[in-house]
Design goal:
By secondary structure, the chain is of the alpha+beta class. It has one domain: Gcn5-related N-acetyltransferase (GNAT) (Aminopeptidase, 3-Layer(aba) Sandwich). It contains five helices and eight strands. The strands form two sheets. Strands 1-2-3-4-5 form a five-stranded antiparallel β-sheet, covered by helices on one side. The longest helix is centred in the N-terminal third of the chain and has 18 residues. It is globular and about 40 Å long.
């Protein structure tokens, strides 16, 4: 186990446990990333790209002390997705991101629950005053989730480079007590 991740936070919601990545999560991530389900986040990719993507997720925690949480149902070890603060060096702003890896978990509100907890962590514990979500313009489900979370399109905000894809920027509501 990587020592940096051993001390990382674990968040409990009504139905989910959010925690940093573990090596045991890689098979579920690989299955997701090598499938068409990953088409809005750079997939589908081969084994090489899946490993690099997963290492990127773990590396964010190791290098910055924060990153996407892996989420699973309470009392279950099997990961069903990830959500959390995302801070790549070359991105214009801090992001709250989400993906649902398990197709059986889609449409049950897990991503909304995880993203709400991740945003509360970013605003409360990390002290962020703003956050965005970068969403592929063709990802209708993710756009609907952003809107359900109270996010609004921010056409003035800069999006990261996306290999020619159209990326929308959704601004999260400000933390409570801040305008």
């Amino acid at each position: 186990m990587i020592p940096y991740l051993a001390a990382a936070p674990v968040i409990e919601t009504q139905r989910l446990t959010l925690r940093p990545p573990r090596m045991a999560d890689y098979p579920a991530f690989r299955a997701f990333f090598t499938s068409d389900r990953a088409r809005f986040i750079g997939g589908p990719g081969d084994e090489y790209r899946a490993w690099r993507g997963f290492a990127h997720v773990a590396g964010m925690w190791a290098l910055k002390g924060v990153g996407s949480f892996i989420f699973s149902r309470h009392c279950e070890e099997t990961p069903i997705g990830m959500s959390g603060p995302w801070v790549p060096e070359d991105w214009p702003e801090r992001e709250i991101g989400w993906t649902v890896w398990d197709p059986e978990a889609e449409g049950k509100g897990y991503a909304a629950e995880a993203a709400t907890a991740a945003r509360a962590y970013a605003y409360g514990t990390l002290g962020w005053t703003t956050a965005v979500s970068y969403i592929d313009a063709g990802n209708a489900r993710s756009i609907a989730l952003a809107e359900r979370l109270g996010c609004t399109p921010d056409p003035a905000a800069q999006a990261p480079e996306a290999d020619g894809k159209s990326v929308l920027v959704y601004r999260h509501p400000a933390p409570e007590g801040r305008a």
